[in-house]
Specification:
The protein has 13 helices and 12 strands. The chain is an alpha/beta fold. α2 runs antiparallel to α3, α6 packs across α13 and α10 (321-338) packs antiparallel against α13. The chain is globular. The protein starts with a helix and ends with a helix. It binds arginine (ARG) and zinc ion.
């Protein structure tokens, strides 16, 4: 019956609760990480920093979780008493919005809600049709499950004459980070439908890839809201029980040396070899093909309000550390200038130092290691004590897109000076 069908969704979250936790000393941070391993906690925002984190706790572990926090003197607050019903409610809101936007016949990409893959691809196709002189839609490959992985190339001259620096931005490698893809489609909009910075359009060629991991992305809508990895099952024996590889541990840089797992069931499973995933191969091939002129590469994630740069596997600085930091701070200032009072200010720094954990095989490290001078991970805004939703409330999508674009603008302009 209908009721059973409706309830079948999100059933893996029956009885789960979510909590805000705020570790304030280094020791508390460490204890929280250990507790995370012991109780199999699912952190939806960086657990390892001194900012508050949001964490999902399964029913069996809630009592011990709360007890442990109290004995460690770590402050916490219940965020959602019933994760499943919060997700169900969110679905209803999404469905209503989808219905009403269908009614009003949206042609352009709506930013009042998160969009399914078909809407994003329809938008990219529409832009390619409307701007045939500057835009080309490319299908780079098919995902593990056979969905196209698509990006737009934007150039006011001829992309093929290789005359300008390239800016490459990707999103959606971690599928549950829903705020990432819209910031990339917003960049498409700002370079086609609504150009307010003509220098950016004229002085660079652009590659914009909103959804690196379409299988995971769709799976977060149809099945498991907090799915992070790809959905591949071919690379490992236990993969039919635990599909998927963490795309951001699968790049060939210090691969699987730190901050990764060999267990296919882990959310940070590195895969059985570097670039085992077609999704990361696509990003690799774009980077390699245009390496000589990629001035700036940004991979967009959430949450944390952070701009991160190499090296994330060991916390050391690259030969271009000063340039990375200077441009990072300039981008963060531009974003903060447009931010809302209830959003945290951006933090800029080396990935491993800011996150307080090391992780090898990530995209920005790989890009920098092969020679991209400016390579960053953006962690978009997501949370702050009590005043935002279970994930970033859809009412903030447009705000985040606008402010993030300001960061891209400054990064692009500064990249030209250094290039
Ligand atoms: N949240 C991202 C992740 O854990 C951050 C990656 C930062 N980059 C790095 N090289 N560790 O995948
Ligand atoms: Zn991520």
């Amino acid at each position: 019956t209908l009721l059973v069908l409706a309830n079948a969704k999100h059933e893996e979250y029956i009885g789960w609760k979510s909590y805000y936790v705020g570790a304030s000393t280094q020791e508390q941070v460490k204890s929280l990480i250990d507790l995370g391993d012991k109780l199999d906690l699912d952190f939806l925002s960086p657990a390892h920093t001194h900012r508050e984190a949001l964490v999902l706790v399964q029913p069996e572990h809630q009592e011990e979780f709360v007890k442990s926090l109290e004995s460690l003197d770590i402050k916490y607050m219940t965020h959602t008493d019933n994760v499943k019903s919060a997700l169900d409610q969110e679905d209803e809101v999404i469905e209503e919005w989808t219905r009403s936007s269908a009614r009003s016949g949206f042609r352009s990409m709506p930013y009042n809600n998160y969009q399914r893959l078909d809407v994003i691809y329809a938008y990219m196709q529409d832009i390619a049709n409307r701007f045939p002189n500057t835009v080309r839609l490319v299908t780079a490959a098919n995902s593990f499950q056979g969905r196209p992985i698509r990006y737009l190339r934007i150039s006011t001259t001829n992309f093929e004459d290789h005359s300008k620096p390239v800016i490459f931005i990707d999103g959606g490698i971690h599928s549950r980070e829903w705020i990432s893809p819209p910031t990339v489609t917003w960049a498409i909009r700002k370079l086609t439908e609504d150009v307010t910075e003509p220098d950016l359009l004229n002085n660079y060629d652009w590659i914009l890839l909103p959804v690196v991991n379409p299988d995971g992305y769709e799976f977060t809508f149809t099945n498991t809201r907090f799915w992070r990895k790809t959905r591949s099952t071919n690379t490992h024996s236990s993969s039919s029980i635990c599909p998927g590889v963490d795309g951001n541990r699968n790049y060939d840089f210090a691969w699987n040396t730190v901050g990764t797992s060999n267990s296919p069931c882990s959310d940070i499973y590195a895969g059985d070899r570097p670039f085992s995933e077609v999704e990361t191969q696509v990003v690799r091939d774009i980077l390699q093909e245009h390496l000589a002129r990629i001035a700036l590469y940004i991979t967009v994630h959430s949450y944390g309000s952070m701009i991160l740069y190499p090296w994330g596997h060991d916390g050391s600085l690259s030969h271009n550390g000063l340039g990375l930091h200077t441009v990072g701070v300039a981008m963060a200032n531009a974003i903060d200038a447009l931010s809302l009072p209830n959003f945290p200010r951006y933090v800029v720094g080396n990935s491993a130092l800011v996150l307080n954990y090391r992780a090898a095989g990530a995209a920005e490290d790989y890009a920098h290691s092969i020679g991209v001078p400016l390579a960053y991970t953006y962690e978009l805004p997501g949370l702050s004590w009590g005043n935002q939703g279970f994930h970033l409330d859809p009412r903030y999508i447009e705000q985040v897109c606008r402010e993030t674009w300001a960061g891209f603008v400054v990064g692009a302009r500064r990249a030209a000076e250094l290039f």
